[in-house]
């Protein structure tokens, strides 16, 4: 495997490991071992760690060590509440700005989601692509900036919302309702559908986290 060479490449690789839980929540990072594994000196490693701490994916211990930030119900509730408001706002904006070409693009993305609904990772990526397309159509710069910040944090929770076939199929139906509201230019319905979709994902993530915590206690 080709090794990352600069701090940004190290950041990308460490971020990937955190989001895919190769570095587990609560796991302590060992600087010398990870820097050696990545084939870099400690300077780019430390810069990457600094960026990940600023992003909220790593926490510094009082002793000076660094750990992967744990997953929590509180984080899920807060992040999804913010995302629901932003997604609702952007869907409402998109409903007033969508044109025929954009509708065709959105419908194509939904159909791609349908083709991949049996595959957890691929379905999640397809659904995420639809959300990004709606944000692009909305053309609300501040909402897009804030959404990008929240989206980076939520990447580590996305797989919790997409584990079961039942939820993937429900999410697909929710995506179709959002796109239909956009097609008809109904801003209020688009806002409501987008918010409900995010909050349904929140409930799934909370249930998944609770289940994992119960399993760990057994």
Please provide a written account of the structure:
The protein is mainly alpha-helical. Helices cover 72% and strands 4% of the residues. The chain has nine helices and three strands, in the order H-E-H-H-E-E-H-H-H-H-H-H. The protein has helices spanning 7-19, 31-38, 42-54, 73-97, 100-115, 120-138, 141-154, 165-183, 187-217; strands spanning 28-29, 58-60, 66-68. It has a three-stranded antiparallel sheet. Helix 4 packs antiparallel against helix 9 and helix 5 runs antiparallel to helix 8 (165-183). The N and C termini lie far apart (38 Å).
Helix vs. strand class: mainly alpha
Distance between the termini: 38 Å
Number of strand elements: 3
As a percent range, the share of helical residues equals: over 70%
Number of helices: 9
In short:
With 218 residues, this protein is mostly helical. 72% of the residues lie in helices and 4% in strands.
List the helices and strands and how they pair.
Blueprint: H1 7-19, E1 28-29, H2 31-38, H3 42-54, E2 58-60, E3 66-68, H4 73-97, H5 100-115, H6 120-138, H7 141-154, H8 165-183, H9 187-217
Antiparallel strand pairs: 1-3, 2-3
Summary keywords:
single chain, 218 residues, mainly alpha, 3-stranded antiparallel beta sheet, globular
């Amino acid at each position: 495997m080709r090794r990352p060479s600069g701090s940004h490449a190290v950041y990308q690789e460490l971020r990937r490991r955190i989001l895919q839980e190769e570095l587990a929540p609560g796991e302590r990072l060992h600087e010398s071992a990870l820097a050696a594994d990545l084939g870099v000196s400690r300077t780019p490693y430390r810069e990457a760690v600094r960026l990940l701490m600023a992003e909220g994916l790593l926490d510094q211990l009082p002793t000076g060590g660094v750990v992967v930030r744990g997953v929590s119900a509180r984080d899920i509730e807060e992040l999804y509440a913010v995302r629901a408001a932003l997604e609702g706002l952007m869907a409402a904006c998109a409903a007033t700005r969508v044109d025929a070409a954009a509708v065709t693009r959105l419908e194509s993305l939904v159909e791609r989601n349908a083709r991949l609904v049996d595959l957890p990772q691929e379905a999640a990526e397809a659904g995420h692509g639809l959300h990004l397309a709606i944000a692009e159509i909305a053309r609300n710069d501040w909402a897009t900036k804030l959404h990008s910040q929240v989206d980076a944090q939520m990447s580590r929770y996305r797989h919790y919302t997409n584990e079961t076939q039942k939820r993937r199929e429900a999410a697909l139906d929710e995506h179709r309702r959002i796109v239909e509201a956009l097609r008809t230019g109904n801003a209020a319905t688009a806002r409501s559908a987008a918010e409900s979709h995010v909050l349904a994902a929140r409930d799934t993530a909370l249930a998944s986290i609770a289940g994992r915590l119960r399993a760990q206690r057994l």
